[in-house]
Write a structure and sequence with these properties.
Elements: H1 3-21, H2 26-42, H3 56-78, E1 88-92, H4 98-104, E2 112-117, H5 120-133, E3 137-141, E4 155-159, H6 167-182, E5 186-191, H7 201-210, E6 214-220, H8 223-228, H9 231-239, E7 247-253
Parallel strand pairs: 1-2, 1-4, 2-3, 4-5
Antiparallel strand pairs: 5-7, 6-7
Helix pairs in contact: 1-3, 2-3, 3-4, 3-9
Length: about 250
Amino acid sequence: MQDKVSQAFHRWLDASFDRWLRELTHAEIARSLSQLSVDYVNRRHRLQSKDALAGRGKRAAFALYYAPRHFLLVHRALASLPAIAVPCLVDLGCGTGVAAAAWCAMLPAGVTAIGVDTSPWVLAETRATWSAFGVRGRTVRSPLARYRWPRPPCAIVAAFTVNELEAADRDPLLVELQRQKRAGSTIALIEPLATRVTPWWTEWSRAFLASGGRDVEVRFTGEDAIAALPKRVSELGRAAGLDPSELGARALIS
């Protein structure tokens, strides 16, 4: 990462740790992270409900472990993209806003970010993240199926979002993204490497490749991952019984 972006990343992360550790102990957050990781792997039905990030512990775990990892993966996945001139960047299922923050760091100044999600807590976290990174934008509380899209072209990112959608919402989203692409938008879809949580990937990859897109893998491996992740994030992951050196994603970019 560029020095300016790296500095903003570490300031944002340090502020997040300081904030959450005023409310919870490191051990409490680690226990919640362990539970949250089980939800992602074995209790995926909870991801479509309000239970996934219910409680301060799981929210802290997501903000302190998954959010910084997602930032690094999105930044690396999009680092090779040329700068594009678009008026807005739409972050679908924005989580804590890190995907938009990572991409905006590589776009010309003046882009307006729009974060779309259904959780008031998530949208508040997104606004705080964007403030830390100097991102100008607004949030919209809406299911993706009912979101009113801005006029294209724009940049569109969906990071670790589509795997949590039901098929009834996922299929129309692909149709809309194809329409956006034809209208000149640039689209980036980032998802976990695990194929069992993305059984639809082959179909989506075929659609992206047909429109001139790319299907790529992004990996930080071994010492590369340890060096990329701040020490506090790695320590939290190990305390929860996770392996912080496993850091990767797959991306569709068009």
